[in-house]
Design goal:
alpha/beta, TIM Barrel, Immunoglobulin-like, 3 domains, six-stranded mixed β-sheet, 18 helices, 27 strands, 27% helix, binds beta-D-glucopyranose
Length: 727
C-alpha cells in the first residue's frame, strides 16, 4: 500500500480523536514509514531541497515539509534557492506586533491568541513549520534582535512562549522555538563562542526554552549559529542530546538555523535532525547539486556506507523528521488569511502591549481637539519592512499618523518630519513598497517643526529606532544606546516650546531618554504591525486604557548595566582566533542586576502606568510553611474612574541563602481587568521549584530550608504587599 493511503486513513482517524490517540497514530505512522524507506529516502528527508523546504518522501506519498519565518507574520515566498523574494502577488500577510510587544502584554491569553492567529495564516499558506517564537533573553539593550524576543526574564518569556506555541500548533503548524541556545547578540553570531557557567545557563538562558518545550509542547526547535563550549550549537551533544532531548524529553525535531551546520560527524552525533540553509544562494558558491552536498546529504550517506556512521543514529533523526511531518498534516483544515479577525487581533495585542511610561496629565487626548501636530519620521515610516528575516510584506500597515487621523476625523492633523534618518528605505528586504526620501537639511526640518507646533492642542512626536542595520536588526547589533539621528536635541528643542509634548518611542529595545523629565508623556510603542496607528491611537485617546508593562529594564545609561567590559560584549578574538563572549555577569541580568546592586534605572522591569489607579490588599498565604505548594491571594481594586487592567507580579526573595542570589525573582504574574470601583482577588500558586537555585556541582535544582519572602507589586520596584514563609 502506498503511504499516502495510510496517511489519509490516519488523518480521518485524527479528526475525531483525542490528542493522545492522535499521538499514538502518529507513532504508528512513523514506524510504518520508516520501515518502508530506503537509505536514499532517509537521507533526503533530513536536509533541505530548497531555501525553506525539505522533500518528504514522494514515493510514499509523504509531502514536502515547508518552513517559513516567523515570528511576526508569514514571510513572503522566496525564490527556490535564493534569499530574494519570489515576487509573488498573493503573499502579502497580516503583520503582527513584535514579540517584545507581546511580552509587554504580560497576558497568557493574548499570547495564545497571537499564536493561534499567526498559525492560521501559516496553515492557510500551506506551511508546516513557523520559524518562531524567539525566546533568547535580552542580555544587553544593544542586541540587534531583541525585538524578536520576549524580554529579560526567563519566567515571563517561558510562560508567554508556551502559549504562543500552543496557539500556533492548534493549527497543526509546528512552532520552531529559536535560537537554542545562548545566542544573545548578533556580533559574531555565526562563529562566536558564548562562555556561560552552568548555573547561569540553567537559571537564565535555558528556562524559556524548557517551558516552551514542556508546557508549550513545541514540535521543533532551531539550533543557533553560535558556539557553546567551543562547539557549534548545531553539533552540541551536550545542549541538544543531553539537555534538550535527555533532561527535558523533547520528542520533536531540531532544525539548524539557516547555514548553522558545519560538518557531517558533528551533525550526526550532536543531535541535529534537519539541516537547512547551508551554502545555497542560487548556487552562487559554485557547487553543482548543492543540496546533495549538504553535510547531512551525500557526505552523510557515504559515511554510513563506509561504516563510519550508524544507520540507527540516522533512523532517530528520520523518526523525528517524520513525526514533525505527520504532526503538521491537517486534512480538510485550511486556516485563514488576512481576515478582519486577524487585523482585530493585531490591534488588540498592540493596544495591550503599549506601555505608558510617563503621564503628567496630558493623556488621554481629549476628543474635541481642533489641531494636532504629529512630528517625527517614525510617524510615517513603514516598520514591517526591515530587520532581516522577520521582515514582512504586509497587506496594509496603518502608520501612526494615519491612526491619529482616523481617530480625529474632525481635527486638523498636521505632519512635520522634524528629523531625518540617513537610511530612508531599508537596503535589505525592501519589497518596493515605499520611498520616504527627504530633501530638507536637518536645521530646516527642525525649524519647520517648531513653526508647525504653534497653536496646536496637542503635539505628538513619534521617534525611536527603526529596523535598519545597527538598529533593531538581525545580523548587526546596535552601536549605541542613544537615539539616532540627533533625536535627543530635536525632542528637547520642541519640548522647550511645548512642555506638553507627547513622546512615542518606537523600538524593540530599551533606548536612552535623557529628555524624559522634559516631556509630558512617554509611550513605549514597540513595532505594532499592520494595525500600528490604530492601536497607538486607541491608547492615546483612552479607547484602550494602557496596561502594558516593560518586559525589559530601561537603564538610564548603558554603563549602569551589568555589562562592563569588551570581554562581556561584544567579545574578543582569542589567541586561536576564536571569538569569545564571556557572560561574566552570570545570573545578574536585567532587573536581577539593577535591583540587587541598587542601581536605579530610568524605567524598571515590570513598570507601566494606566489612566486609572489600583490599590493592592494584603497578601494572604495559604500557609506560612512550604509543603507541596503555597497559594498567595491578593485583592486588587480599581480606585480610579475608568475601567482598566493591572498586571500583578509575584516575586520571591530568598532571605537566608548559602549562595549569592538576586534580591528577588519573578515567579508569577496575572493580568486582571477591573471596572471603576471593582475589586478582584488574584491568585498565584508556586512550589519548591520557585524557591530553587541551580547547584552546578550537584547538577540539580536546590531549594534550601530557611526564610523566604513573597512580594507582590505593580513593577519590580513598586512592591505593594509582602509576606514571609519558611521552607
Ligand atoms: C535567522 C533565523 C531565520 C532563518 C531563516 C536565519 O538567518 O537567524 O531566525 O528563521 O534565517 O530565514
Amino acid at each position: 500500500m502506498k503511504y499516502g493511503h495510510i496517511l489519509l486513513a490516519a488523518g480521518l482517524l485524527l479528526a475525531g480523536c483525542c490528542a493522545h490517540n492522535g499521538q499514538k497514530d502518529i507513532e504508528k505512522q512513523v514506524k510504518d514509514a520508516l520501515a518502508q524507506m530506503t537509505l536514499n529516502e532517509k537521507i533526503a528527508l533530513i536536509h533541505a531541497q530548497s531555501k525553506f523546504t525539505s522533500p518528504g518522501v514522494p514515493r510514499l506519498g509523504i509531502p514536502e515539509l515547508k518552513c517559513d519565518d516567523g515570528p511576526h507574520g508569514l514571510r513572503p515566498e522566496t525564490l527556490w534557492d535564493k534569499w530574494a523574494a519570489a515576487g509573488q502577488t498573493n503573499d502579502s500577510c497580516t503583520a503582527y506586533p513584535s514579540l517584545t510587544c507581546l511580552a509587554a502584554t504580560w497576558n497568557k491569553d493574548i499570547a495564545y491568541l497571537y499564536g493561534r492567529s499567526v498559525g492560521e495564516e501559516a496553515r492557510y499558506r500551506g506551511k508546516n513549520v513557523l520559524l518562531g517564537p524567539g525566546v533568547n533573553i535580552c542580555r544587553t539593550p544593544l542586541c540587534g534582535r531583541n525585538f524578536e524576543y520576549m524580554g529579560e526574564d526567563p519566567f515571563l518569556a517561558g510562560k508567554l512562549s508556551a502559549q504562543y506555541v500552543k496557539g500556533v500548533q492548534s493549527n497543526k503548524v509546528a512552532a520552531c522555538v529559536k535560537h537554542f541556545a545562548v545566542n544573545n547578540q548578533e556580533s559574531h553570531r555565526t562563529d562566536g563562542n558564548s562562555v556561560v557557567d552552568d548555573r547561569t545557563l540553567y537559571e537564565i538562558y535555558l528556562p524559556a526554552f524548557k517551558t516552551a518545550v514542556q508546557e508549550g509542547g513545541a514540535w521543533s526547535i532551531m539550533s543557533s549559529y553560535n558556539r557553546y563550549e567551543e562547539v557549534f550549537v548545531s553539533h552540541s551533544s551536550h545542549l541538544l542530546n543531553d539537555i534538550l532531548k535527555g533532561e527535558w524529553g523533547f520528542d520533536g525535531a531540531v532544525i539548524s538555523d539557516w547555514g548553522a551546520t558545519h560538518d557531517t560527524e558533528g551533525a550526526a552525533h550532536g543531535g541535529l535532525d534537519l539541516e537547512f540553509g547551508t551554502h545555497t544562494d542560487g548556487l552562487s558558491q559554485g557547487l553543482a547539486n548543492a543540496y546533495d552536498a549538504y553535510y547531512m546529504a551525500e557526505p552523510y550517506k557515504a559515511k554510513i556506507l563506509a561504516g563510519e556512521l550508524s544507520e540507527d543514529e540516522l533512523n532517530e533523526k528520520v523518526r523525528r523528521a517524520l513525526r514533525l511531518n505527520f504532526r503538521t498534516q491537517a486534512d480538510g483544515y485550511f486556516g485563514s488569511f488576512l481576515s478582519p479577525e486577524h487585523f482585530a487581533d493585531c490591534r488588540r495585542i498592540g493596544g495591550e502591549g503599549i506601555v505608558l511610561l510617563r503621564n503628567e496629565g496630558v493623556l488621554p487626548l481629549k476628543k474635541d481637539a481642533k489641531k494636532i501636530v504629529v512630528l517625527g519620521e517614525n510617524a510615517i515610516r513603514p516598520m514591517i519592512v526591515g530587520g532581516q528575516s522577520s521582515s514582512l510584506k504586509a497587506q496594509h500597515e496603518i502608520s501612526p499618523l494615519q491612526g491619529i487621523r482616523n481617530a480625529f476625523p474632525e481635527a486638523e492633523v498636521v505632519y512635520e518630519r522634524a528629523y531625518y534618518s540617513d537610511q530612508p528605505t531599508p537596503g535589505n528586504y525592501n519589497y518596493g513598497q515605499y520611498d520616504i526620501t527627504e530633501e530638507r537639511p536637518a536645521a530646516k526640518l527642525l525649524a519647520d517643526a517648531l513653526a508647525a507646533v504653534e497653536g496646536a492642542d496637542y503635539v505628538i512626536f513619534v521617534g525611536g529606532l527603526n529596523k535598519n542595520d545597527n538598529q533593531d536588526c538581525e545580523g548587526r547589533d546596535r552601536l549605541s544606546y542613544e537615539l539616532p539621528y540627533g533625536q535627543n536635541e530635536v525632542i528637547e528643542a520642541i519640548a522647550a516650546v511645548r512642555p506638553d509634548l507627547v513622546y512615542v518611542n518606537v523600538s524593540g529595545s530599551p533606548v536612552a531618554m535623557p529628555f524624559a523629565d522634559k516631556v509630558a508623556a512617554i509611550l513605549q510603542a514597540w513595532y505594532l504591525g499592520s494595525e500600528t496607528g490604530n492601536a497607538l491611537a486607541d491608547v492615546l485617546t483612552g479607547a484602550v486604557n494602557p496596561s502594558g508593562k516593560l518586559p525589559v529594564t530601561f537603564p538610564v545609561a548603558l554603563e549602569d548595566g551589568p555589562i562592563k567590559t569588551e570581554r562581556q560584549f561584544p567579545g574578543f578574538a582569542d589567541e586561536k582566533g576564536m571569538w569569545q563572549t564571556y557572560y561574566d555577569e552570570g545570573i545578574y541580568v536585567g532587573y536581577r542586576w539593577y535591583d540587587t546592586k541598587g542601581v536605579k534605572p530610568q524605567f524598571p522591569f515590570g513598570y507601566g502606568l494606566s489612566y486609572t489607579s489600583f490599590e493592592y490588599g494584603q497578601a494572604k498565604l495559604s500557609s506560612k510553611k512550604m509543603g507541596k505548594s503555597i497559594t498567595v491571594k491578593v485583592s486588587i481594586k480599581n480606585t480610579g474612574d475608568v475601567a482598566g487592567a493591572e498586571v500583578a507580579q509575584l516575586y520571591i526573595s530568598d532571605l537566608e541563602s548559602s549562595v549569592d542570589r538576586p534580591l528577588k525573582e519573578l515567579k508569577g504574574f496575572e493580568k486582571v481587568y477591573l471596572q471603576p470601583g471593582e475589586s478582584k482577588t488574584v491568585e498565584f500558586t508556586f512550589g519548591r521549584d520557585a524557591l530553587s537555585f541551580f547547584d552546578a556541582e550537584k547538577h540539580a535544582w536546590v531549594a534550601e530550608p530557611g526564610k523566604f519572602k513573597v512580594l507582590v507589586g505593580a513593577s519590580s520596584e513598586d512592591i505593594r504587599t509582602e509576606a514571609e514563609f519558611t521552607l
